[in-house]
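COURSE: Structural Biology Practicum
ASSIGNMENT: Worksheet 4, Part C
STUDENT ID: 0417
INSTRUCTIONS: Below are two proteins. For each, the amino acid sequence is given first, followed by its structure token string. Answer the questions at the end about the second protein only.

PROTEIN I
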Amino acid sequence: MTTTHIPADEATLRQAIVEHAKRFAPAGLSQGTSGNLSVRWRSDDAEGLLITPSGVDYGSMAVPDLPLMRLDDGSWSGPLKPSSEWRFHRDIYIARPEVGAIVHAHPTHATALAVQRRELPAFHYMVAMAGGRNIRCAPYATYGTEALSHNALAALQGRRACLLANHGLITVGTDLASAFALAIEVEQLAQQYLLALATGTPVILPDDEMDRVLEAFKSYGANAQQVAATAPR
């Protein structure tokens, strides 16, 4: 029996996807086979993405199951088909070279806002964690389509998160840990916003205050980055 050799750096990326996928349900982001994760992948002669496969329960998913897709022509290799949502993953990586990982999920509270086609306004300063004064909701389009990808890219302009109307959310990050953490943050904000709506009228922070927060957030997490940079490998 022969086995396919997986380079060490690719194996690390694959393991990160599997570990984070198994955290989807405990984190309250998605259940069963819903939602998907990807990371940017590079080799000496190509660039692409590793993505969760279509229709596979994350509890039983293994490292070799992950399809590898090229950015240039959309071709893929692996034992299982890529997620049906591969298109917006690929298009985001092409349009946003700074993005290293993408999380797409259907968490309860963010999706409750999305089915009302509501954005998350600046009711709390932590909305700025997504990169702007609000978290937009992209117009509805059928899942897996080019139209959905187009709508998501527009809603993510200048942002690291968006809602998808009647669908769920997308978050992006430099790596999978940051994209996953932001997805949890957006879901918590959505829960807080829905509670505020149910009990009164949320007070929205003015643009100048959100701009101050956005400026302050440019150095937010600097200590963690320094620790990561100096940690032994």
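PROTEIN II
(use this one for the questions)
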Amino acid sequence: MSNGNHRLFQIFRAGRQTAMSGATLDFTEAQLTACAHVYNRALRAAPLVLGHPEDNRPAFGEVLGLFCKNGGLYAQAKVSDGLVQAVRAGHYKKVSASFHMPFSQDNPVSGAFYLRHVGFLGAMPPAVKRLEALVFGEGEALGFSEEANEPEFFTTLPVAGERLALHQAAQHYRAVCPALSYAEAVGLAESIITF
């Protein structure tokens, strides 16, 4: 299994939001669901960056997938070791999502908001308030121990270690986003975990 520093965290939420430019936009849950649906890292991956650089560089990881639940937009991301350590040390406590507007020329999927990057913020407060806390604890990466019991849900997977990995990832996802059902969490974990 190769999972590295895969993390799950909230990056945005529905509602009236004010961009750094001062523009105020209303984001619906349907728009965020569409954003998650059209995101395709093979088309254009959204990097993890520090602040909001114009050129999206340097990158400290990338978003692997997105999902929307109860008005929150969540990123499944591969995070560099250096950024994980910086978050743990308290240097970056908040995130801020940057989007291509639905009909901008730079948008690879016309008609929907498309994630441009996720900026990790130090002293600068994020425009979107009340996001879930960003915490990259020691036990939160999708690396797994053999101690947890696996449920009967996974009887179709051939290798016990693979079943256990998905079970533990699903538990982690539900801890970050309690509104997820167990089956939803497993499906999300299956979308990024490679064995």
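ANSWER KEY EXCERPT:
Q1: Confidence is low (pLDDT under 50) at residues 140-150.
Q2: The chain has five helices and eight strands.
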